Amino acid sequence: QTNLLQGWIRSEQTLPVSHRTEPLRLLLLAPKSSPNGRLVVISHGLWDDPESFEGWGEFLATAGYTVLMPDHPGSDFTQQKAMLAGDRPPPGPEELRLRPRDVSALLNAVESGELLPGQSLNTQSVAVIGHSWGATTSLQLAGGAPVERKLASRCSDLSDPERNISWVLQCSWLSGIKTVGLVDHRVKAAVAVSPPLRLLFEPTGISSLSAKVLLVSGDRDWVVPSGPEAIRPMRETGAARFGH
Question: Is residue 163 within 8 Å of 151, Cβ to Cβ?
């Protein structure tokens, strides 16, 4: 679909990937004219889908960026519907590993020409934007090193006064936490919008980030409370010292 007024081209594609049994569905928005050769990947949150972020993608495509929006099949809107119908269990901890691999698989496909063939796109300097769980995905790809210490020590205490809704998701990741350090050095910038991160990353882990990070968080977010879950952890790390 081509929007002549805004100057972007929309398409839906599927990409077979080795780490999943089903192909990835992705929404692609490309500039109709004056492409700048830069790639942006947008990663959706838990039980969401790429279509929720088309507004972001259209804005970027109009500015010359090529935007890839994968549908993470183990934690998307379709998975939620199947779970509520009793046909599938909740997303498992393996999704913390599979989501970054989805993004890296897209970059591999662009590099090989399997995706967007014939276009001159810079795959060595990519931006990843993520919302909620997608924000955690962006931080993993940017070099954030997840650890188990806080998950192991705090998830078992159901009366912890600092416990919040985002801890339910983070605590579900504990059993798979040792396999999710999945940095992709092609990612040079990450935008993390409302990331659940307090239990996942140690303060020292911020120094391992290989990409520059922009954190966006709102004080009316009751699922991922801004202060304890986003602002305080990044402030405690002294992130500004590292250029974030």
Answer: no
Residues facing residue 29 across a β-bridge: 10, 67
pLDDT per residue, tens digit, the chain (244 aa), is 555 456 899 999 999 999 999 999 999 999 998 899 999 999 999 999 999 999 999 999 999 999 999 999 999 999 999 999 999 999 999 999 999 999 999 999 999 999 999 999 999 999 999 999 999 999 999 998 888 999 999 999 999 999 999 999 999 999 989 888 889 999 999 999 999 989 998 766 666 788 999 999 998 998 999 988 888 887 777 676 777 7
Q: Are 127 and 41 in contact (CB under 8 A)?
A: yes
CA gap 122, 216 in Å, rounded: 26
| pTM confidence score | 0.93
Query: Which of 142, 144, 198 lies closest to 169 in space, CA to CA?
Result: 198
Query: Could you tell me if 109 and 115 are in contact, meaning their C-beta atoms sit under 8 angstroms apart?
Result: yes
CA 126 to chain CA centroid, nearest Å: 13
H or E, element range at 54: helix 54-62
